[in-house]
Every structure is written in C-alpha cells, then in structure tokens.
User: What shape does this take?
Amino acid sequence: MSTKKRTAILISGRGSNMQSLVEAARAADYPAEIVLVASNRPEAPGIGWAEKQGLVTAIIDHKQYPSREAFEAQLQTALDAHGVELIALAGFMRLMTPAFVERWRDRMVNIHPSLLPSFKGLRTHERALEAGVKIAGCTVHFVRAEMDDGPIIAQAAVPVLPSDSPDTLAARVLAAEHRVYPAALRLVAAGGIRSADQKVTIIQHSGETDSLFSPAI
Ligand code: GRF
Assistant: This one.
C-alpha cells in the first residue's frame, strides 16, 4: 500500500505552482500524491491543465454558496471523499475561516511571493520595488487564520535588479517558487520537519550557508 500523503491542491487561477507540484509528485520517491485539484473559480486556467493530465478535479464555485462556512463544508466533503491528508494552496484567493484553518492546522501549506513577514497581501512585487529592497523572494508556510501568516517552512531569495519592473521581478520570484514549493511539500509530506511554538525546525538541514534557498535544495 502507498504511504504517500494524499494531497489536494487548491487553486483560483493560472496554476503554475500546481503544475510544479504535480510534476514533482510524479517521481517514484516523492512522498506526496496529488489526489485532487480543486478550484473555487470555474474559469481558472489551471483546472483545464489538471484535467488534461487526467487528475481528479473539482470546481467548487464560492459564488454558489451563501456563506464561507457553506463553501468550506462543500470543500471538506470533497476532501473527505478523496481521503485528503494534506492541502497545498497554490494561488488560492479565498481566506479560510478560523474553524477550517484549525481543522487543517499543520496540514495546510501556502506559497506567498515575498520573504515573509515582509509584504503580506497583494501587489507584493510593486511594494518591494517601492521599498527599494535588494533581495526579494518567496515563502512556503503553514496556514493560520491571519492572511499570509504562519510558521515558515522554506524560503527562496532572488536579487532585485535596478532595471526591474513588477513583472520582471514577479517572473524571477515565480521561477524560485516553482523550485521551493515542491521541495517544501516534500519535507512536510515526508515528516522532515518539526513544528512547535509557531516555528518550524528542519530536522535534516544540510547546514548549507551560501544557498539562496533555505533549506537548500
Ligand atoms: C503565485 O505567485 C503564488 O505565490 C501566489 O499566487 C501566485 C499564483 O500563481 N500565492 P500560479 O497560479 O501558481 O501560477
């Protein structure tokens, strides 16, 4: 019997991070298996890609539900139906209720395109350029009730160039996202981390100090 963690990916849009997770999960030794891709937006381009891959997909259009709770109840039904053990949010643009977040505590991860705790929320790249930071990046973290908050699992850094626009910076960060997210999900699914006091410790850290990925990948 497979010991891979049964994982759902939730999207709202393009789904390029979903794609990187799906592709990583094809490796025989990857500890997570993508058993469901769900979108809250019927028109999300990522859903089409997932269908073409033959993945199980679900569209749970939040606009069809009278409340967040009703939407989440339907989502939970889909997660239960597929025996989901881990959730990876990948460009999922809905805030979850504290009850849902608590139910999935330390079993739901998200990727955010900044070096948290800097630049939570939207327009991260524009705001990073406005602030004049010289290093930008992305963060994979466990989800908590506050937006873009929660114990940090992994981060990747990229340089900010003087010629950058929000779009060129976003593209550089996105390339890093596609590398760090599969690596972080691998750690979570394999049980390679410890979470206590709101902090994640990487059990088998390579100790590498000159990598722009931490933990190094
Ligand atoms: C990514 O930048 C991710 O960090 C953020 O939303 C964007 C989603 O892009 N949460 P994609 O749908 O994965 O291509």
